[in-house]
């Protein structure tokens, strides 16, 4: 007797499952947007809306009297015209750019030296140096500014004492904040001290990615440490340096608390940078519309630097 196997029946289509699929697909497609909604609302409330209010305020004549009366007077481009024709603005702007370039250059230089020291140090020395850098990086800006103000104090400052004891100069009672040049020097020290840890640790991380075989081959060819760095290490780390340079310029262009807690823009407004200039216009002079126009111009300048930062990131990713 021959047994024949019946072919398996095709499964009947499940109409209920077919009817559910479009809804489940739409839910799965909407799920990422639902998960991103809280972050989008947070960005909208903390970034987009304040920037929108800042831009709107820059087109208004907003002072203390207007705030008390709760009135709004639109003045068009008058605030921008006054800002761009203000001689003090054209004094503060190049000073801020020069200050930022100086701080950024010294930060990259000292940070690179610290990174090279981290790579060459023993494990225990590397741990101690890394810990010191992290502590300096974690110190609040206000605390750091106050500490440096004490260090450079004319009567009880440690800096004057050390310079006098070591015989470098007779600095007893020397005032570091009496002239614009010396006050700016102190500010540069404060800014660089706070920014070096981030740069040093970032460059050190980049140094670890450089293949040691390249350095060994260069040493065999008779290249020195300086030639190896500028011919091998620096070209490989150029994207890292570009990003660090742009970030440092952005941070140093908008620096405010270190200056305000140390010199308040003195002496004789010689250390007034854009951040302090905006504060004086908005808070001290109650010209909130004019201060907003300066802040918008400063934001546009920083957006240009941020574009360079994003471009460097894209080049590094590619």
TrEMBL record:
The keyword Cell membrane applies. The chain crosses the membrane at residues 30-52, 97-118, 127-151, 185-207, 228-251, 288-310. GO terms for cellular component: plasma membrane. Residues 1-11 have a biased composition (Low complexity). Keywords: Cell membrane, Membrane, Transmembrane, Transmembrane helix, Transport. Residues 1-24 are annotated as: Disordered. It is a multi-pass membrane protein. Residues 93-309 form the ABC transmembrane type-1 domain. CDD domains: TM_PBP2. SUPFAM superfamilies: MetI-like. It is found in: Cell membrane. Residues 15-24 have a biased composition (Basic residues). InterPro entries: MetI-like, MetI-like_sf, UgpAE/MalFG_permease. The keyword Cell membrane applies. It comes from the Bacteria. One of its GO terms (biological process) is transmembrane transport. Belongs to the binding-protein-dependent transport system permease family. PANTHER family: BLL4140 PROTEIN, DIACETYLCHITOBIOSE UPTAKE SYSTEM PERMEASE PROTEIN DASB. This is N,N'-diacetylchitobiose transport system permease protein. It comes from Thermocatellispora tengchongensis.
């Amino acid at each position: 007797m021959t047994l024949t196997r019946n072919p398996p029946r095709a499964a009947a289509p499940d109409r209920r499952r077919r009817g559910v699929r479009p809804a489940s697909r739409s839910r799965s497609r909407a799920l990422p947007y639902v998960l991103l909604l809280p972050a989008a609302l947070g960005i909208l409330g903390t970034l987009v809306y304040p920037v929108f209010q800042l831009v709107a305020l820059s087109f208004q004549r907003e002072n203390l009297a207007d705030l008390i009366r709760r009135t709004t007077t639109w003045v068009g481009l008058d605030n921008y015209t006054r800002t761009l024709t203000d001689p003090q603005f054209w004094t503060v702007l190049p000073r801020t750019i020069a200050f930022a370039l100086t701080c950024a250059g010294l930060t990259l230089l000292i940070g690179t030296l610290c990174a090279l020291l981290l790579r060459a140090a023993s494990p225990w020395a590397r741990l101690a140096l890394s810990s010191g850098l992290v502590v300096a990086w974690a110190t609040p800006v206000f605390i750091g500014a106050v500490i440096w103000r004490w260090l450079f104090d004319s009567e009880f400052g440690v800096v004057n004492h050390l310079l006098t004891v070591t015989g470098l100069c007779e600095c007893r009672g020397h005032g570091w904040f009496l002239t614009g040049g010396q006050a700016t020097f102190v500010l540069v020290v404060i800014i660089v001290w706070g920014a070096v840890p981030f740069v040093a640790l970032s460059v050190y991380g980049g140094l670890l990615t450089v293949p040691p075989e390249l350095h060994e081959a260069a040493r065999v060819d008779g290249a020195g440490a300086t030639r190896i760095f500028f011919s091998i290490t620096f070209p490989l780390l150029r994207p890292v340096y570009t990003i660090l340079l742009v970030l440092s310029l952005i941070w140093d262009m908008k620096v405010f608390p270190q200056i305000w807690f140390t010199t308040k823009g003195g002496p004789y407004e010689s250390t007034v940078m854009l951040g302090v200039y905006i504060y004086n216009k908005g808070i001290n002079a109650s010209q909130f519309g004019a201060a907003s126009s300066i802040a918008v111009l400063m934001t546009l300048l920083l957006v240009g630097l941020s574009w360079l930062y994003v471009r460097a990131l894209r080049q590094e990713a590619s």
